[in-house]
Design goal:
Length: 209
Amino acid sequence: MRHQNKINQLSRTSSHRSAMLSNMASSLIEHKRISTTLAKAKALRGYVEPLITKSKTDTTHSRRMVFRKLQNKDAVSELFREVAPKIADRPGGYTRIIKTGFRQGDSAEMCMIELVDFNDIYVTDSKEATKKTRRSRRGTGGTAKPAAAPATAKVEEAAVATEAKAEEAEVVEETTDATEVAAADTKAEADSPAKDESNDEPKKDGDKA
């Protein structure tokens, strides 16, 4: 029974347990996710997360402290080069445990433990979806208004141009009508005196005769 025992012994000695957790932590750092039993995953989470927190300060001392636990140079370099920059803004909770069912042989509860920031499905899709919806709303509103404004402006300019042309045509017609009327009047005035003189002359000749 585990009354008042915070550490899960995992049915192993201290040296065996520390070696197992060290190997599992190295595998988790290198492969970003591993599949194991739920009890081992919970023990590994308390073992590896303090090491990830130490990797935020890239100093010789922190590298030596992490190497003392992992005993794997490749895992240490992977932790400080690739994992540390991604978890720099995260205050904790670097791992996620996902239950996957029960093992067939002994019905042990199985799970998958992974690094949170290296899961593309849970991290990038949600952020991109929210950003895309916001950008699409802003983009459509911003692009539709300028596109509508030039169209209305062009229609208004065309209407004004047609009205101006119609007014010019009316003015030209009026001027042509006025010139024609004036020309007709001038012709009538020019012809009327000549007819009167021609009519008067025979009368005068007849009177004389």
